[in-house]
Request: fold
Amino acid sequence: MTSEALPRSYERDDKFYFPDGDMFLAAEGVVFKVHKVMLSRDGSMFHNMFSMPNASSEQTSEDNPLVLQDNAKCFRSLLWILYALPPEITAATSDVTSDNIYRLIDCLKLANKYHFSAIQSWTSETLSSILACLLKDNDKEQQSESRAIRRNTRDILVRLSEVVINATDAGSVRLTSDLRTVWRCVIKKADTLQELVGILRILEEHDFRGLQGLAYHRILAKWPSWRKSSLLNRDQKIKLLAGYHSLQDTSYSASLLNELSAFQHSARCRNQEECSDSWDTFTTRLGSRRSHYPGTGYATRSSSGPIDIVKHLRIVCNVSNNLTEHRDKDLCFDMKDECIKNARLQAEAVLLKVETNLIDVFTL
Reply:
């Protein structure tokens, strides 16, 4: 943020230029006249700036506003949420349109930048809810808008990923997890190699390393003829070849099996060795190229190519999630419910670690 004279071509914002405002700000040649009390909400960076001893001597005017290095539309979105009445916010969030989603993403971006913590939490939670139903079928009344959102899904995911991919606050961590789930669905639903390579290029262009590995892994799992494809460039083929041989290495599977076994037993578990053996009996099936999971309906068969480690880990997570309610003698799970829960949490942690770092498998 700097205080400098604007070029003569600036214009006043149509909505956020209040006659009784006491603060002039500018972004991309647009001047906003707003209230310091609104910008000072939530212990923001503006609050800290206005609280400085010499703040009163740094008065701004329309000819000498505080210039922000932000997109004008993006800053307008932040002002919208600062000034919006509860009914306006409810209406905007219940009417899930592409424009409203983009506005929420802009709000989150500047809330992160200027430390509006309450807005960060609220927008993260709202966007998580939207992501949960983004790829689901909508009511007939919303069918037209639903198609529009689906057409913009990748752009929405890219813009949201740019905002939260490296965030560490609690709300954004949950949002990042939900975002990864939607990206995974988009990657999985790619019907052709051309479509998947297009997704991969987007992920590489924006340096979303934690997601690139999923796309490379999907290519290996679904298109064994990738070597002959002209859609992939030389560097991409080298990464795929490196990943192919890395996933063939049995030590990679063995290290995952060891991590899966490192769960915490329940205090009521009287025979931890038998409990661990029961869990290992299930998880060691990950090392089989032709695996079947009795009583679950899950089967993974691969006559050639590397073991689909990611799919196997997802199966472990999904099956163990239902074990406490649906016991199956064929699974030989002689475990306490709490032990199963802890083992499942460990499996989910291993899966997240594998998916996040999967690109390393495809790196020489």
Notes: Strands lie at 2-3, 11-17, 23-27, 30-34, 66-67, 290-293, 298-301. Confidence is low (pLDDT under 50) at residues 137-146, 289-303. Residues 77-246 form one domain.
